[in-house]
């Protein structure tokens, strides 16, 4: 079939403008299905001349106003109703807490009346397909330890998702916490396995830090301005892990750690975006390889021009320094950096192409960036019982 023409069967070809008009009226979910049936329609989505007129995915931010409250979405584009971002298709748990999101999947922690404080329950769902999977229970250590749970999913690498539950023990003398072990769940075989090969006092903490899954490697930003890499977790119970440094400015003490950046990716390459020492410029770095490689500075983005001011740091009486904004997510494929502006209490997007800020919504919350993915959960590779539900 001619990829430049629309074809609705029986040899009937439509002009491009008429095909585009038909496709533009479809909900995004239906458009995704249409692309799978005709290579000509698929070519429209990759053509810059047409893509602005085609249905857009419901990109946005999921958030809760309080723990266990209803899940809401702050959309970057009009909602056509294709996706249930409120997660109403999930069972009615006693409480539900948004935990993480990654490439269209959402991870939540949930509780039941019979829940024990020594057991964690997680569910992974896809708002685009309304599928959900309850993970087997995982045990928690006695009170005093902390946990950081990360969802990893990259459909370009594998149809399966992974959940990492990092246990971090706090040194009773020092202020820092460090990873003691990691429970890893794979949807390939629907089981958890334990990675406990960690050096004592490693001073690695990933709590509240961003992460990226690229080419089967999980990259996690640490609180000490380094990158932790976990590799070979998909086909072995002995993952490898190593560390390399982040580029640019490194805070000299917790008093000035407000200028830490954010890990991201573009075209399969690891990126890092960080404010400079005064917060007036965002520096965009790209890594040219790992474990051996270098960070290369790609862009300088003027926050002074975007906000119309030159002072972004405030020093407080207790010695702490705060920045007027914080990076909350990146979508470098779409040329966007997302910021929270503390004084205005707003969630904003910054366009790399225009240098302009756009308000998304008022209010400071814990926001999880969401881009829909219409692929279905694949069948697991074992015969073990597992809850996989769909409409």
From TrEMBL:
Residues 14-54 form the F-box domain. InterPro entries: At3g26010-like, Beta-prop_At3g26010-like, F-box-like_dom_sf, F-box_dom. This is F-box domain-containing protein. Pfam families: b-prop_At3g26010-like, F-box. Gene3D superfamilies: 1.20.1280.50. It comes from Oryza nivara.
């Amino acid at each position: 079939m001619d990829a430049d023409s629309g074809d609705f069967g029986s040899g009937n070809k439509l002009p491009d403008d008429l095909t585009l008009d038909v496709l533009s009226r479809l909900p995004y979910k239906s458009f995704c299905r249409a692309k799978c049936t005709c290579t000509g329609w698929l070519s429209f989505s990759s053509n810059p001349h047409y893509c602005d007129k085609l249905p857009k995915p419901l990109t946005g931010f999921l958030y809760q106003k309080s723990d266990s409250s209803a899940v809401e979405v702050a959309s970057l584009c009009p909602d056509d109703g294709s996706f249930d971002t409120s997660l109403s298709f999930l069972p009615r748990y006693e409480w539900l807490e948004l935990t993480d999101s990654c490439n269209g999947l959402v991870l939540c922690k949930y509780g039941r009346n019979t829940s024990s404080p020594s057991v964690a329950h997680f569910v992974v769902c896809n708002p685009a397909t309304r599928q959900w999977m309850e993970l087997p229970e995982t045990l928690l250590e006695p009170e005093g330890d902390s946990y950081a749970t990360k969802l990893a999913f990259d459909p370009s690498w594998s149809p399966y998702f992974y959940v990492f539950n990092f246990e971090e023990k706090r040194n009773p003398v020092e202020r820092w916490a460090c990873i003691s072990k990691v429970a890893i769940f794979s949807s390939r075989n629907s089981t958890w396995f334990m990675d406990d090969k960690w050096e004592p006092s490693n001073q690695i903490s990933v709590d509240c830090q961003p992460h990226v899954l690229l080419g089967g490697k999980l990259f996690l930003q640490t609180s000490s301005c380094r990158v932790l890499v976990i590799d070979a977790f998909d086909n072995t119970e002995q993952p490898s892990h190593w560390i390399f440094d982040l580029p640019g400015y490194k805070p000299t003490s917790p008093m000035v750690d407000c200028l830490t950046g954010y890990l991201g990716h573009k075209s399969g390459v690891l990126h890092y975006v960080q404010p400079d020492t005064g917060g007036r410029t965002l520096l965009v770095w790209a890594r040219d390889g790992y474990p051996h490689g270098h960070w290369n500075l790609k862009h300088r983005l003027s926050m002074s021009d975007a906000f119309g001011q030159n002072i972004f740091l405030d020093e407080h009486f207790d010695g702490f320094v705060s920045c007027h904004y914080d990076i909350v997510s990146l979508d470098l494929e779409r040329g966007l950096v997302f910021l929270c502006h503390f004084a205005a209490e707003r969630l904003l997007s910054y366009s790399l192409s225009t240098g302009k800020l756009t308000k998304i919504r008022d209010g400071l919350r814990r926001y999880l960036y969401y881009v829909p993915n219409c692929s279905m959960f694949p069948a697991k590779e074992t015969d073990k019982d597992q809850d996989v539900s769909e409409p």
